[in-house]
Design goal:
single chain; alpha/beta; Ribosomal Protein S5, domain 2; five-stranded mixed beta sheet; 3 helices; globular
Length: 111
């Protein structure tokens, strides 16, 4: 059974932006950094540029669903921050999962 925790602390997000590697797609920006915990931790952000609260919440919900789809394929021991972009609100989680998978593959080189 896979277990993913949620990043909530501002310092964790700042550390990811500063030290993590990033990959950019039209639908999402992904930051990744190794952790020593043996579990994955994710954080999702959506700024006011995306739109009103309804659109921001939809963007976060779609990102969570896309990650849940890919979770079994993602190696453990990583922290991820997903930053929603304007086009994230217009897509489905299956479309986003494809973009997310591409970003994760570039960041997390599976051996």
């Amino acid at each position: 059974m896979l277990h993913t925790e949620i990043l909530k602390e501002n310092r964790d997000f700042r550390r990811m932006y500063r030290q993590g590697k990033s990959a950019v797609a039209p639908l999402v920006v992904v930051y990744a950094k190794r952790n020593r915990l043996g579990i994955n931790r994710i954080g999702i952000t959506s700024s006011k540029k995306i739109g009103n609260a309804v659109k921001r919440n939809r963007a976060r919900r779609v990102l969570r669903a896309a990650y849940r789809e890919l979770e079994p394929q993602v190696p453990t021991g990583w922290d991820f921050v997903f930053v929603a972009r304007t086009r994230t609100t217009l897509c489905r989680s299956t479309e986003l999962a494809v973009a997310l998978k591409k970003c994760l593959e570039t960041l997390v080189k599976t051996k």
